[in-house]
Amino acid sequence: MGEVLHTASNVASVISTVLILGESGVGKEVVAKLIHKLSKRNDKALISINCGAIPENLIESELFGYETGAFTGAQRKGKAGLIELAHEGTLFLDEVGELPLNLQVKLLRVIQEKKLMRLGGLSETEVDVRIIAATNKNLFKMVQEGKFRSDLYYRLNVVPIEIPPLRKRRADIIPLCYYFIEKYNRKYRCNKELTPEVEDIFKRYSWPGNVRELENVIERLVVTTQMDEIDEKNLPLFFIEDNQSVYERVKLEGIIPLKEAFEALERKLIERAYKKYKNTYEMAEALGVNQSTVVRKIHKYIKSNALKHD
């Protein structure tokens, strides 16, 4: 992420087109806003549009605007599109891979010629916009499949910035947790904090929804946990039921060593029994093993782990 932010800050001072790549929820719009904020255009508008959220029959008029009488229901005086509203500022095109092919041609002309024509218009309007695009799709593959114009792809891909998913930057997880806890503590006037056990669970979890999922989970925990301390019992079930690091390897690789899978399950059972029962004899009875085995497993999975943390 340090390299991502370094690249973003360097490219902010020029007007080169930027293509931000990454899975849904990694923070592509946050990086786009950072680039605009650090640019010489920061006193002008940053106009954002999600190309996948607007119906195909409306996106042309939203982007390029329209003249009087361009279509049924059009305003009498016409309307400027989002590209015109971003004049001298920045236009952020999120999910640009969803842009229809016929509009890709018009966008290419805006990038190349700095001109656009409104829907139903007879003359072109000059526009000065800095374009930042983002996608969670493989645009190069879409070009090969004929689903995205190659000339537009190369115009957008001047400075690519790839944001890695949260599972590949695990060092960010806990700092982000506390950033969002502070945010929602202020918003809801709370004083919540995470236990070390919850931190460990969060660090092992794969976060398929990335930073957006993490923020949603933190907000949910802040508003639903009655005590100031958020512990394991407050977490949604899917955090507790799976040893996510092993689960993810099974999903990605198909097969992992049985010993590794067995130890993950054994560790989880020992940890739960250790918290639930008062002594090792009760633990042994519940787990169906002798007491000496329980003592050995506690030392292996719990005490040795505590010593590592110390």
UniProtKB/TrEMBL annotation:
Keyword Cytoplasm part of the UniProt annotation: no
Keywords linked to the UniProt accession: Aromatic hydrocarbons catabolism, ATP-binding, DNA-binding, Nucleotide-binding, Transcription, Transcription regulation
Stored SUPFAM superfamilies: Homeodomain-like, P-loop containing nucleoside triphosphate hydrolases
Domain Sigma-54 factor interaction: 1-223
Pfam families per the UniProt record, alphabetical: AAA_lid_14, HTH_50, Sigma54_activat
InterPro entries documented for this protein: AAA+_ATPase, AAA_lid_NorR, Homeodomain-like_sf, HTH_TyrR, P-loop_NTPase, Sigma_54_int, Sigma_54_int_dom_ATP-bd_1, Sigma_54_int_dom_ATP-bd_2
Magnesium is among the record's keywords: no
UniProt xrefs under PROSITE patterns: SIGMA54_INTERACT_1, SIGMA54_INTERACT_2, SIGMA54_INTERACT_3, SIGMA54_INTERACT_4
Domain of life of the native organism: Bacteria
UniProt-recorded name of the protein: HTH-type transcriptional regulatory protein TyrR
Organism of this sequence: Alkaliphilus hydrothermalis
